[in-house]
Amino acid sequence: MAPTKEEEIQIKDFKDESPFKLGPAEKFLKEVLDVPFAFKRVDAMLYITNFDSEVEYLKRSFETLEAACEELRNSRMFLKLLEAVLKTGNRMNVGTNRNHQIGRLLSFWYEPESNSRENPNICIPG
User: Fold this and answer.
1) How far apart are CA 20 and CA 16, in angstroms?
2) Distance CA 77, CA 53 (A)
3) Nearest to residue 78, comparing CAs of 69, 87, 88?
4) How do residues 74-113 score in pLDDT, each as one tens digit?
5) I want to staple 22 with a disulfide (CB 3.0 to 4.6 A). Which of 26, 37, 43, 118 is the partner?
6) Residue 122: strand pairing partners
7) CA-based end-to-end distance of the chain
8) How far apart are CA 49 and CA 55, in angstroms?
9) CB 108 within 8 A of CB 126
């Protein structure tokens, strides 16, 4: 934990030569403050030390995320939920200026020959 600017100035300006005026932590800090960019260097060393473990943690997190996405892709229940949301949205459009806009079922996304240019009334959520 780095000292505040005010603490740093107070320690740097301390001129008393008596070894008993400063505690061991303050003595150490006074010496460290004479090293250029000491706290940035320590932060860099900590970053380098923790880098591999952080990368491994992120890899495991991404693997978990990929597994969850794959599970959702293969879930019939999730597909039914999305279709229910789509139908609800279509019902909410009735009576608005988007009255003729319709949503498509999710199977639409897997049919490359079918797109919204063929039917201008199709509303593709995005």
Assistant:
1) 10
2) 37
3) 69
4) 888 988 998 888 888 877 777 666 656 666 655 555 554 5
5) 26
6) 102
7) 46
8) 12
9) no
Nearest C-alpha neighbor of 123 from the set 78, 81, 88, 99? 99
Task: Tally the residues of the chain.
Answer: 126
Model pTM score:
0.44
Distance CA 7, CA 24 (A): 16
Q: Which two tokens stand for residue 115?
A: 């797109």
How confident is the model at residue 126, as a pLDDT? 45
pLDDT tens figures, 48-75: 999 999 999 999 999 999 999 999 888 8
30: closest CA among 13, 5, 6? 13
Is 121 within 8 Å of 102 (Cβ atoms)? yes
∠ CA 49-51-53, rounded to 5°: 95
Q: Rounded to whole angstroms, how far apart are CA atoms 38 and 33?
A: 7
- Rounded-to-integer distance, Cα 126 and Cα 120, Å: 16
